[in-house]
Design brief:
Blueprint lengths: L2 E6 L3 H12 L3 E7 L3 H11 L2 E2 L3 H5 L6 E4 L7 H9 L3 E5 L6 H14 L3 E4 L6 H11 L6 E9 L4 H5 L14 H5 L1 H11 L2 E9 L11 E8 L4 E7 L9 E6 L2 E6 L2 E7 L6 H7 L19 H16 L7 H20 L3 E2 L1
Parallel strand pairs: 1-2, 1-4, 2-3, 4-5, 5-6, 7-10
Antiparallel strand pairs: 7-11, 8-9, 8-14, 9-10, 11-12, 12-13
Helix pairs in contact: 1-11, 4-5, 5-12, 6-9, 9-12
């Protein structure tokens, strides 16, 4: 039995959701709703699905068992809560929302309705990311001392000018950190555990007509005692693959998008050489470093496969609402520190 899915929002990312759903084992795209009816109809025509004139119409369709939220970042709350109240399972494109409070409202609504909630952090599903996590959990790094994330990307002025919501605090939720680097922030927290303190600086250096930052640097202390750095920018031409680094007393590893460019441990296993060979040059796209459309949809497919299996087997998705909230919480703390000049405790 397939799970019927409706998409709310027909912007660029909705196309990746549609392709991902088409590639799932048991998912079926039923239809789409966007406030722009022309865009809704164009999406429906392109993807062979229904177009709805209102969100209520979609939520009343018995063929829709789950809803994917693809609206601008700061407009996830309303449709997500409405979907939950209608008894639909909910998967939300990153970020879950742009404030902790809005994340909590979505989580509470899904809990109250007893529906599944998943956040779209597809980088966790990449084989290289899973290998990093397994090595952390197995203690192969020894005492982990450093965990860093670097997102040195490029976005043109035309990118920000292409939508009135882009570059606004209300609907984008932030700039290089909240919009572009959030996948790396999520990976870092997944690998390193919760953050304890942050101290940050940010600025808008090369882009015009935006409220948010195009460069930010944060120093992190994790609850484990390990330290780290997060760097994010959209003004580093021509853009480089995002990078996450883990270092400890007995090992170091570097993840660049889906490539493992370093995988070195004091106690080598028989599999390590194979991992280094297999995970070199794994990235097939630009990773979104210079072009937001230059990503694959295979990660999204795994998000939907996991989400659908969670519905079928009545379990939590791998990245549920609580997990999806973590990156928003840290990013908001970084913004608070950068605005106030103070060290912020989480």
């Amino acid at each position: 039995m397939s799970i019927g899915i409706g998409i709310v929002g027909a912007g660029m990312i909705s196309n990746f959701h549609a392709k991902a759903i088409a590639d799932t084992k048991n998912g079926k795209l039923i239809g789409c709703y966007d406030r722009n009816i022309d865009r809704t109809e164009q999406f429906a025509s392109a993807n062979g699905c229904r177009s709805y004139s209102t969100l209520d119409e979609m939520l009343a369709d018995p063929d829709v068992q789950a809803v994917a939220i693809c609206t601008p970042s700061g407009a996830h709350l309303e449709p997500a809560v409405a979907a939950a109240k209608a008894g639909k399972h909910v998967v939300v494109e990153k970020p879950l929302e742009v404030t902790k409070e809005k994340c909590d409202e979505i989580i509470a609504a899904c809990d109250a309705a007893n529906v599944k909630l998943a956040a779209t952090f597809q980088s966790r599903f990449h084989e290289s990311s899973q290998l990093m996590k397994s090595a952390v959990d197995a203690g192969r790094f020894g005492k982990i001392t450093l965990g860093d994330a670097y997102v040195k990307w490029y976005r043109s002025q035309e990118y920000y000018d292409s939508g009135a919501w882009r570059g606004t605090w209300a609907l984008d939720g932030g700039g290089a950190l909240m919009n572009q680097a959030i996948h790396s922030v999520d990976l870092l927290l997944w690998l390193m555990g919760p953050a304890k303190k942050v101290h940050a600086m940010m600025d808008t250096m090369t882009h015009e007509r935006i409220e948010v930052e195009d460069i930010v640097i944060a120093n992190i202390q994790f609850e484990s005692g390990a330290l780290g750095v997060i760097e994010a920018t959209t003004t580093a031409f021509p853009g480089a693959l995002k990078r996450v680094e883990i270092a400890g007393s007995e090992g170091s590893a570097v993840l660049e998008e889906e490539d493992l460019t370093q995988w070195t441990f004091a106690s080598e296993t028989d599999e390590d050489a194979s991992i280094r060979e297999r995970m070199a040059g794994k990235t097939e796209t630009g990773g979104g470093a210079a072009d937001p459309a230059a990503i694959g949809h295979h990660g999204h497919t795994e998000v939907f496969n996991d989400f659908i299996e969670a519905i079928e087997n009545d379990r939590e998705p791998l990245v549920n609402g609580v997990e999806g909230r973590r990156s928003t919480e840290l990013i908001c703390a970084i913004y608070e520190s950068a605005k106030t000049g103070k060290t912020i405790e989480l």
